[in-house]
């Protein structure tokens, strides 16, 4: 018996039923009926490179466990090919650039935090004594002096593979809404925010000096840092995955990074 030719007769749905089905599909209420999202077919002309922020670590839908890459990543939401990976430094991003071609029109890069150990600084300062915090901040500040050269080499590596691409570097959000923290936490949080601002300034200056662009995200996260009523950044301990701490959550990517980067994507 041929299953392909032995179907029972089907009845065409009435016009009212077809209209209702179309309405439900439009709102995504019919399982399997909605069209495949555009982000499922990444653009071959836009590539997102970078660290865990580019990877979308902290988003709710993990698509690559090895890199902690999620569907909430800003390159993915902007329909790009996302090569971001948790822990990536400028050296790893230069390796990511090997996938680019002359047909690429847009490259966005989020990198620099791992080069100077921002995550380690945040963890030390939030869990250890003030002296340890100052030591960690001092080490990060020293490492920051080497970052312009590393970023310059990264931009050059991208340009060598995609000479016609618009290259945009992004900054990082300030992690804390200082006013919402306890008086004992405020000094440390303010120092970490200050170190992040210095990192962003270094990235912006280096990008512009090398013919790349820069997009700031700090103002979009204002009022949504750790300590705020509605944080867009994972508070340490609020997730089963400790690696998500200090990373944007779904709202942070959707309302923070995506609108900041969108104008730079061709």
TrEMBL record:
Disulfide bonds join 67-85, 125-133. It holds the Pfam family Lipase_GDSL_2. It is an enzyme of class 3 (hydrolase). Residues 49-254 form the SGNH hydrolase-type esterase domain. One of its GO terms (biological process) is triglyceride catabolic process. Residues 1-40 form the signal peptide. Its EC number is 3.1.-.-. SUPFAM superfamilies: SGNH hydrolase (SSF52266). The keyword Transcription regulation does not apply. Coiled coil: none annotated. One of its GO terms (molecular function) is triacylglycerol lipase activity. The active site is at residues 52, 247. Keywords: Disulfide bond, Hydrolase, Signal. InterPro entries: SEST-like, SGNH_hydro, SGNH_hydro_sf. This is SGNH/GDSL hydrolase family protein. The lineage of its organism: Bacteria, Bacillati, Actinomycetota, Actinomycetes, Micrococcales.
């Amino acid at each position: 018996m041929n299953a392909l030719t032995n179907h029972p007769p089907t009845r065409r749905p009435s016009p009212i039923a077809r209209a209702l089905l179309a309405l439900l599909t439009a709102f995504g209420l019919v399982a399997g009926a909605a069209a495949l999202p555009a982000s499922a077919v990444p653009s071959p002309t836009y590539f997102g490179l970078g660290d865990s922020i580019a990877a979308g670590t902290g988003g709710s839908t993990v698509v690559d466990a090895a890199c902690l890459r999620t569907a909430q990543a800003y390159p993915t939401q902007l329909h790009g090919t996302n090569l971001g990976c948790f822990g990536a430094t400028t050296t790893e991003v230069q390796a990511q650039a090997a996938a680019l071609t002359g047909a690429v029109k847009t490259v966005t890069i989020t990198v620099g935090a791992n080069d100077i150990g921002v995550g380690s600084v945040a963890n030390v300062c939030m869990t250890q004594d003030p002296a340890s915090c100052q030591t960690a901040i001092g080490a990060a500040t020293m490492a920051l002096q080497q970052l312009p050269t590393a970023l310059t080499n990264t931009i050059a590596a991208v340009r060598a593979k995609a000479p016609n691409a618009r290259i945009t570097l992004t900054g990082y959000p300030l992690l804390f809404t200082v006013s919402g923290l306890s008086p004992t936490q405020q000094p440390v949080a303010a120092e970490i925010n200050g170190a992040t601002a210095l990192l962003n300034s270094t990235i912006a200056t280096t990008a512009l000096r090398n013919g790349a662009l820069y997009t700031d995200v700090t103002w979009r996260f204002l009022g949504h840092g750790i300590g705020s009523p509605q944080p867009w950044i994972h508070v340490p301990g609020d997730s089963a995955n400790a690696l998500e701490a200090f990373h944007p959550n779904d709202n942070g990517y959707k309302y923070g990074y995506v609108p900041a980067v969108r104008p730079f994507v061709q």
